[in-house]
């Protein structure tokens, strides 16, 4: 059955998957959502016998219904290849009885690679299907990981250009180095004087600037988005939840149909929303455990039913989760409002006006599958140290937030029998200083690359290629701008 995509903010004409991917954001500023969530049409047993690529096809074909089998399989083959340093693409590592789903084996060693290695292929296929002649300009705001993963995905992809905005003082040194050393004539990286929310708001504003869109069209350009507001990012993220269950089943760790919990370190709410969609496709998931850092808007939301961004923005050791406006939550709000675009639009207007909104009791009741909690900086560091001491497994700061929240969940609920998958979203090599300092304060005196070698030793893991590459790479991007000058910067880059 065909899946069409509606905006979360108005009842316009639904669009096909390829059109939603090309546009990124709907014209009314809303996000595209599937008109229904398709059910898995392969049994769990069948899925458990498949490779990652095969599972990805079985999931994505159900959402991207206007892609032919050949188109989709080609995209999948090109995305999930030897760019990943393991054949299984997303390995499951057991530590202390929980299963860490390592989503960081792609070229930029964060989970964003899972979707951004396929998005460029989905995008150019969509452009071809829709007879688009314009060059596609990918505009991206990043809290650190999306930027590099999108740059790596789109670099030198014909018919595309990519512009990445990151908060100049809000990413880790390794994240910044990864971005500013990006090669490719079609890439452009800009540090903004502001935080991630400023970058994201600026990008959304540029997207909804109708005059600019017209001007761009005249010069042969059109915008699209590589942020997780693009449905072409969300759908590929559903696949690894299905694959993790398939792996547990294949390895005899779970019984066919037995439910598992999923813990997700959350920022923009894209990753956990993908898990929610997986559950709605029929994957046996019990609780969706949403883990936040000190920017605990989501924890407060799940507890009180009020989403309130009026608070201090905290810079933490898990920068990819330093977010006060979780964009993808809008897709969940729309759904629990009964797919009511008017209601959702009202709440989003309150969010942009007063910085907060409150959901009804009925809507709150529809969130029963979610459990929210958070870990502060000390708890996050302690969790890295605790897990390393107990079993030698080293996790990054984001994964540590999830792991610490899982410990809180266990304590609160006693639910230790349910098998639990913890999304491990970045390699510890990406946040080496925070990780090593958490393990022992003595490491603070070492340089970034000395720490990399030390981490390799204590974790008994070879240094990933992504880190080796930046040791000596020259800086090729040094543009900075104020948050309110983002549009001018874009125009300069495009020479319009
Ligand atoms: C992006 C990111 C997150 C947050 O994911 P969302 O989909 O934005 O909730 C968590 N951890 C890491 C390492 C990330 O890069």
Mean pLDDT: 96
**Biggest β-sheet strands, sense, barrel:** 6 strands, mixed
Q: What overall form do the CA principal axes indicate?
A: globular
Alpha carbon gyration radius: 21 Å
Provide the list of bound ligands, each named once. Answer: pyridoxal-5'-phosphate
Terminus-to-terminus distance: 43 Å
Q: Counting H and I runs of at least 4 residues, what is the number of helices?
A: 22
Strand order of the largest sheet: 3-4-14-9-10-13
Percent helix, as a range, is 40-55%
Strand content: 15-25%
Helix/strand class: alpha/beta
- Give the uncertain stretches in residue-range form: none
Beta strands, count: 15
Question: What's the short version?
Answer:
With 496 residues, the protein is of the alpha/beta class.
How is this fold's topology laid out?
Blueprint: E1 5-7, H1 17-23, E2 32-34, H2 44-48, H3 52-63, H4 69-79, E3 92-95, E4 98-102, H5 112-116, H6 119-129, E5 135-141, H7 145-154, E6 160-167, H8 173-180, E7 187-193, H9 196-207, H10 210-218, E8 221-225, H11 231-250, E9 260-265, H12 270-280, E10 285-292, H13 297-304, E11 306-308, H14 329-336, H15 341-354, E12 356-358, H16 361-365, E13 370-374, H17 377-391, H18 397-413, E14 419-424, H19 432-439, H20 448-459, H21 465-472, E15 479-482, H22 486-494
Parallel strand pairs: 4-14, 5-6, 5-8, 6-7, 7-15, 9-10, 9-14, 10-13
Antiparallel strand pairs: 1-2, 3-4, 11-12
The chain binds pyridoxal-5'-phosphate.
Structure description:
The model has no long low-confidence stretch (mean pLDDT 96). The N and C termini lie far apart (43 Å). The relative contact order is 0.14. The protein has helices at residues 17-23, 44-48, 52-63, 69-79, 112-116, 119-129, 145-154, 173-180, 196-207, 210-218, 231-250, 270-280, 297-304, 329-336, 341-354, 361-365, 377-391, 397-413, 432-439, 448-459, 465-472, 486-494; strands at residues 5-7, 32-34, 92-95, 98-102, 135-141, 160-167, 187-193, 221-225, 260-265, 285-292, 306-308, 356-358, 370-374, 419-424, 479-482. The strands form 4 sheets. A 6-stranded mixed beta sheet has the order 3-4-14-9-10-13, sandwiched between helices. Strands 8-5-6-7-15 form a 5-stranded parallel beta sheet, sandwiched between helices. Strands 1-2 form a two-stranded antiparallel sheet. Helix 12 (270-280) links the parallel strand 9 (260-265) and strand 10. 45% of the residues lie in helices and 16% in strands. With 496 residues, the protein is an alpha/beta fold. Helix 4 (69-79) runs antiparallel to helix 6 and helix 11 crosses helix 12 (270-280). The structure holds pyridoxal-5'-phosphate (PLP). Pyridoxal-5'-phosphate binds next to helix 12. The site of pyridoxal-5'-phosphate has 17 residues, from helix 12.
